[in-house]
Amino acid sequence: MISHCFVRLIMQHYQDLDISRVLTRRRVDTLGDFPLPDRLTNSIDELIAHSDIIVECTGDVFFGTEVIERAFEAGLSVVTVNAELQVTTGSYLSGKGLLTEAEGDQPGSLAALREDALQMGFQPLVYGNMKGYLNHNPTPEDMAYWAKRQGISIEQTTSFTDGTKVQIEQVVVGNGFGATICRRGMEGLASADLNRSGTVLGLIADGLGQPLVDYVLPDGYSAGGVFLVCRHDEDQAPAIEYFKLGSGPYYVLTRPFHLCSLEVGKTVRRVLAGGGVLLNNSVEPTLGVAAIAKRKMNAGDMIVRGIGGFDVRGEAVRLVDELDHVPIGLLRNTVLRRAVEPGQMITFDDVELQPSRVLDIISQQRQKTVQHLETRPQPGGVLQQVLR
């Protein structure tokens, strides 16, 4: 859906841009309904040879990583609509070339709202997502029904429903902008009034002394957008109250929509104009997304897929607290070494991971994080050994 809509957008509304090639893993002769069927290719080499910039929207961590590495080898910049990749291999890739999440999906929309807020003098305390529905363990039958009704894949429907996607999205935002979480999995406040919920989250962020990422479950208002909870200069309070944002000290700024593929073109133009990165997972992330078992599984059982599957779901964690967690984006046809219980976090000792480029990258990043934590300065200038 993303690629179809994006191609149509560029064709009809971006006369200064041209879609040169579209990479697909499917047989080209089976895609007659694609808007530009003559631009389809199965060759990464052909894609790169005819491109000035790559837009990656596979939703696939493994294939997306391969394509981006190849693009960077050719000196190309990459705009992605793939928070799943960002949170899994994005920190490594961001150190190798220009990789940015696009405006349109919630992380990019929050990044764009943040830029607007900063230019108006606001200081973000909370980066907030809105989630319309949450069921941590939906049935395959329900997901098949809703996938067909919404015209998207069962895997996408499941990751949206069980909360994995919102956890991934908020971790990318947190890593990109130096924000943290208040607890594993975030608060996820039930919210009938966004201003009140924003105040609660603002108080939590102030208590932590650090900006916060979180989400709300709206009741009585639309769940289609994103929001910030901000502070501003005290001497601006009368003007801001006159502008109908309340008396403070916490001000809620909302962007009541995110239009996915219809907004990606803005980020493409940003990069081509030299505007740089809108958002990435940073080269030194502090948050990750762990895999949490949805059901009891035995040694020898296989986790067919992590994101969008029926075996595990994702939860945001602080890396310093959960260094042994397996990133959910790494799980694909993974055999369990030992039994796990519902609600249990999957660790590296629990699974037999298949060799892959993604595993190599995660292992390298994990070691980098361990080394950083082992030698980080503590209060009073003392170096603390965190791990052995």
TrEMBL record:
Q: Where is the Oxidoreductase DRL-like catalytic domain?
A: 104-264
Q: Where is the Aspartate/homoserine dehydrogenase NAD-binding domain?
A: 8-86
Q: Which Gene3D superfamilies match?
A: NAD(P)-binding Rossmann-like Domain (3.40.50.720)
Q: Which Pfam families does the entry link to?
A: DRL_cat, NAD_binding_3
**InterPro entries, A to Z:** Asp/hSer_DH_NAD-bd (IPR005106), DRL_cat (IPR048423), NAD(P)-bd_dom_sf (IPR036291)
A GO molecular function term, named singly, is: oxidoreductase activity
Give the protein's recorded name: NAD(P)-dependent oxidoreductase
Source organism of the structure: Stutzerimonas stutzeri (Pseudomonas stutzeri)
